[in-house]
Amino acid sequence: MSDAPSRTGIPQAVILGAGYAGLSVAKTIHRHARSRIQVVLVDRFPEHVLRTELYQVDEMAAPGTKRRQWALPMAEVLDSHIARFVQGNVTGIDLSSKTVRLETGTVPFDYLVICLGSVPSYFGIPGAKELAREVYSLDGAERLAAQLVEVERSAAKVAWSPPPRIIVAGGGSTGTEVAAEVATADWKDLADPAAPAPRVTLLTGPMPLLQGFPDPIIRHSRDLLEKSGVEIRENTPVARVEPGQLTLKDNSTVDFDVCVWCAGVEAPPVVAQLPTEHGHGKRLKVSPNLELADHPGVFAVGDVIDYANPGSGVLVPGTAQAALAGAPIAGYNVVARSLGKRLKRFSYHEKGVIISLGLGKGVGRAGPVSLWGRPAYVLKSLVEAEYSLAVERG
Fold first, then answer.
1. 358: phi > 0 → left, psi -120 to 50 → alpha, else beta; which?
2. Which of 50, 248, 281, 376 could form an SS bridge with 364, CB 3.0 to 4.6 Å?
């Protein structure tokens, strides 16, 4: 792949990451610029992953489940007239020379939009990265599902075997959803007719369960988790992870057969290394235009940014909803910057939040309306299905 500038003389906008934000940015630039800007979309995978659905590890464990349920081929979700897709792993971003380094070469840019999402944050805890599973990537979620089936089948082979011990570290929405899915899954059907129900423990670490969520959602979540058999242990930060055992900060230990790490996320290393201002979790500080203040023409969207809403000062959450809200602003501003027009400002207004808690139950809030149980679960399922269909249809 050549690092020479485009010979057409048409400005080139490069988008890093083909997730929720990246696809939306590409389509926005195309809609406003048409042929006046060349768009290149870069991702290390040839698929668009429905990342917000990766907590469904019980469904991944089902026999005959196809990867396509969570990963849509890029050729089907991105028309070639909207953007040129380049598959490659980003190894570096040179803001001064305006080039993106891939393992296979370099890609020049006139405008850049960073939508690389986030990676698990292990906080330097020994053994966490090597011995715990994660659900922030499709490969990680698939490996977790396979290991859960394996430990259930192993337990089924031994008479009077104790139930598998599943530890979920992290009491945010991801950890809460994973704990509920594992606890309520029908492992007799998924693994073996003799498989016992697992013993699931949710460790919240130094943060309380679902910190930042409204109190009614926290109360109902706790109630549904406990009714599902999930043991909730709060204020139990992990100090070390060893094979089959966690050591907590108070030097007590917790044995496990499977440990799932949902303790938080941070910016990918290639983003953390950029010579610009960073915020919490090494995320990028951006202006209200979603632009790096010291690099005009370089924008960032989604999990990768540290941005507080103007006026309120409240940090915009790293959610798909927030990424999809910011993507059209960033895409429009790329075109505006190229035409010398005034850039738009981003202000996030949350429409609601829903947490799935297994067995067709959930909790949530849509505007001023609170939802519990089956209605919340159905609404989340409908939202996920609508998004999947919208992406697949382009």
1. left
2. 376
